[in-house]
Structures are given as C-alpha cells and as structure tokens.
Structures
1.
Amino acid sequence: QVQLMESGGGSVQAGGSLRLSCAYSGNPWRKYCMGWFRQAPGKAREGVATIDANGHASYADSVKGRFTISKDNAKSTLDLQLDALKPEDTAMYYCASPQNTWSPCWPWTEREEAPTYWGQGTQVTVSS
C-alpha cells in the first residue's frame, strides 16, 4: 500500500526558513517522479518542485532560488527546504508522486487529471 506522510510545517515570519519532509513507502519510488504541491485558501493547487529518478529538480518560477527539493532513497524521504519565505508562500503543502512514469516530471504537475498519490498535507504559514 502506497503511503506518503508529510511533516515539518509551521509558522514563521517573512524571511525565515522551514524544512518539510515526506516519508514514503509502498511503491518502486526509485523510478518515479516525486514532488511538492501547495494550495492556498481560495486558490488552485500548484506544483512547487519536482525531482526525477536521477535527482534532477524542477521548480515553479515563484520559488526558484528559495526552495530546494531533495530525495534520499536509502531513507525513503523527500524533503523541501524553504528559505527566504514570503507571506504568499502560505499554503497547505502536499507531497505527491504520479501513479505512472513521467519524463520529464514537471508536466505532471500541470495535469490535474493525472493519477497521483497524495500525502495528507502540512500547513506552512508565513507572517509579514
């Protein structure tokens, strides 16, 4: 059974940092894309970052240079380092992986209908 479990959210002031972590199990993750999405109240869900089986990362323009995605296959964890946080980064953040292979990964984030495994989410709140 596929499981994704996020942790590490919280409340910080603008300019601060947080590190999100996702523990995953139950799938041959080594060959699949993995990524982070976020959804703010009243807004559509959006892709934040993806990482492929070779460790190549892609980012939304809004977070480039501030967020870093990483994956540890030995520990079965997917992390997202959030630096230089802004109030507009406030959202529920979700760890996810597509149920099918994608190459490259980023287009998966733009296909709402793509079958995807989701974590339960972790809240990030940034105050000004």
2.
Amino acid sequence: QVQFVESGGGLVQTGGSLRLSCVASVSTFRSTTMGWYRQAPGKQRDLVATITPGGTTMYANSVEGRVTISRVNAKKTVYLQMNSLKPEDTAVYYCNKYLNQESWGQGTQVTVSS
C-alpha cells in the first residue's frame, strides 16, 4: 500500500521559512515524477511544484522564486523548501505522484501569520 508521510509544517511569521519533507512508500519512486500540493480552507487542492526523476522542476506561478522542490531517491523523500512565506501560503501541504495519484496522506499544516 502506497503511503505518504508529510512533516515539517508549522506556524511562522510573514517572511519566514519552512522545509517540508515527504517520505513516500512508492515502489517505483526512482522513476516517478513527484509533486507537492496544497489545500487552503474552503478551496480545492492545488499543485505547488513537481520534480521529475531526473530533477527537472516546475513551480506554480504563486510560489515561483520562493519555493524549491528536491528529492533524495535513496530515501524515497521529497522536500519543499519555502522561503519568504506569505499569509496566502497558509494551507495543508501534501505530496503525491504527479500522475496516477495514490491515496492522500495526512498532510502537514503550514500557517503564516501576518
């Protein structure tokens, strides 16, 4: 059974930083494009960033220049370094496969105070 365990969220002030981690029990992790997603209260879940097996990254316009996605295949772990955080970044953050998504994990709450 595929599982995603996200961690690293918390409460920070505007302009602060957080590093999120996601351990993915995906058997094909090394060959899978992974993504970070977020869901704010009352809104749909949106894609934040993706990273291919080879390390090519893509970012949503809303986070471009402030966020860096990375991965360590040997640890089956995906990271999301978030800097210059804004109140509008407040959401629950999830990781999952970019295509053919599996069941979602619990996510990790990020709250940015103004």
3.
Amino acid sequence: QVQLVESGGGLVQSGGSLRLSCAASRSISSIYIMGWYRQAPGKQRESVATITSSGIINYADSVKGRTTISRDNVKNTVYLQMNSLKPEDTAVYYCTNGLVWGQGTQVTVSS
C-alpha cells in the first residue's frame, strides 16, 4: 500500500507563504483523489483541499483564494501552496488518498 510523507511545514509570519509537499512511495496516477487536511489543537481534522486524477479541485472556504493544490503524477507528489497565511491556519497538515494518511507536517503562523 502506498506510503505518504509530508514536508515543507514550518514557522512563518502572518502574510507569508509555504509550499507543502506530499511524496508518495509509488505512482499516484491511478489514485482517484488526493487531499490535504489539517488539525489544529483541540479541533477536529478538516479538509483543506482535494484534487482528483482528472483535475477536479475543491477548497475549503477558509482557504479559497489563498491556496493552490496540485499533483505531479511523474514525481508522485501532491503540493499545497499556501499564501497570505493567517494565525488560524496554524495546524498539523496531513496528506491522504482517502485510505492512507501521512504523518503530518506542522505549520505555525505567528501574528
């Protein structure tokens, strides 16, 4: 089964940008949907963005206009470009194919 490894998190000031990467252990071209979720302390895990193999994309309202999800089926990697970051974006960000989850990468936005 595929393994997913996230990277790219870190500490950034409000208004800054980060690009998260999710590297898969095998080809993702046949995986129908890939997504990014996040979980802030004391809150439930929530969807941030998803992308299907045909390129259909959905964003959470809270990140729409500031975030871009993309997938590279050659590099077997899914990206999440986040701009204009806000303190409320602080969370652990997870990558998933709907069945398998990565270990997460911490994003902290300071005000």
4.
Amino acid sequence: QVQLVESGGGLVQAGGSLRLSCAASGTKVVETTVAWYRQAPGSPRECVALIAIAGQIQYANGVRGRITISRDAAKNTVSLQMNSLKEEDTAIYYCNALRLNFDIWGQGTQVTVST
C-alpha cells in the first residue's frame, strides 16, 4: 500500500524559507512521478512542482526561481525548498505520487506566510 506523509509546514514571515518533506512508503520515489500541489482557501488545487521518474523537473510559473524540488533515493523522500516566501504562498501543500496503477495523495501540511 502506497502512503505519503508530508512534514515541514508552519508559520513563517514573508521573505522567509521553509523546507517541506514527503516521505513515501510502498513505492520508491525514483520509480514514481512525485509532485507537490497546493490549495489555498477558495481556490483550486494547483501543481507547484514535480519530478518525473527520469528526473525531469517542472515548476509552476509563479514559483520558478523561489522553489526547488529534489528527491533523496536513500531516504525515499521528495523535498520542496521554498525561499522568498510571499503571502500568496499560504496554502495547504500536498504531495502526490503517480504511476499507471496508482494516484496517491498525502494528508497535506499547512504553510502560512505572514506579512
């Protein structure tokens, strides 16, 4: 059974940084496309960044240059380093693991950026 557990969210001042982590079990992150999504109140869930099985990385336009996605095969985790945070980055951040035979979401972690 594939499970994802996010951690690292919290309250941070604008301009600050946070590092989110997604720990996977039941699958290897290097054999899975893993993406970070976020959902702000009243807004649809949007993809922030993803890392494909072969290592290709994509970022949403609004976060490119401020956010870095990476994976650690030994720890079986995918991280999201977020710098220069803005108030509009406030959202619940979700990890998603996608393969042909599953599409799994974590429970989410809250990120709140204060001004």
